[in-house]
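User: I'll paste a sequence; please echo it back and then give the predicted structure.

Assistant: Echoing your sequence first, then the prediction.
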Amino acid sequence: MQPQSVSPLAPIGVNAALEAASNPSIKPRPKIFDEFALTDRVAIVSGGNRGLGLEMALTLCELGARAVYCLDLPESPSEEWQKTKEYVEKLGNNSRLEYISVDVTDQQKLWKVGEEISDKEKRMDVCIAAAGILKSHTDCLEYPAKQFQDVMNVNVNGVLFTAQAAGRQMAKFGNGGSIILIASMSGTITNKDHAWVSYNTSKSAVLQMARSMACELGPKRIRINTLSPGHIYTKMTAAYLDKEPHLLDKWSSLNPMGRIGRPDELRGVIAWLASDASTFCTGSDILVNGGHHAW
């Protein structure tokens, strides 16, 4: 019985070892690094101006992506983004980091951006929907409609529209692709002592969005997965930690590792989900939270 699909790197794994055993002229070499390579591929990353989005965009560049387009709201990219772009140029792997100002809640504009990128690059391979917002503590019984709608508009609608913008182009080219929706452990647990009903609700919606899209797009070889980080020190969480330093100890005590995470600790899982190393993974949620769920 033969598998349903064959890796473009075939023979690979044990099959490569068996072929080498039967053909002495074959010179074995590691292929695992080839599985993670994104050579010549094109990606978009929403929320790519800073924080987790920028960290993930850089990861794709280091993997050899031809072009990674960072989509974010500011008209001009941050100094952090500019320095990262300069760093990418020094890598010498012909990868480009690009910036486009766009509101992720504007569906038609996002679709147009996706079309413009694919028209220029002639392909679309990876999408990371990382744009998101978090509002201050608000009693769930008094939560204002406008504030709730603002969070849902960015964290749910914006994620869907970003995935659509890339997925429509992936479907057009017929080469498949990987779409990674950035959720949160807050989509499956409630952050102790934090009144974040809108944020938690939005991240739970992202988890179900990914499962639904994965089922629809599987036949097109477009994979949809979610990444759910735990407490990570970013500019968004710094808004709380810098004002209330005691929260660092509290958040750190909530997982077995006794600390909060670093943005760079998400690089490995992004590399795996974005690449051919994860071609049989779709509709899944990957937790990276220091074991927060384990107790």
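The CA atoms of residues 20 and 109 lie 52 Å apart. The beta strands are 42-46, 67-72, 96-101, 126-129, 177-182, 222-229, 285-288.
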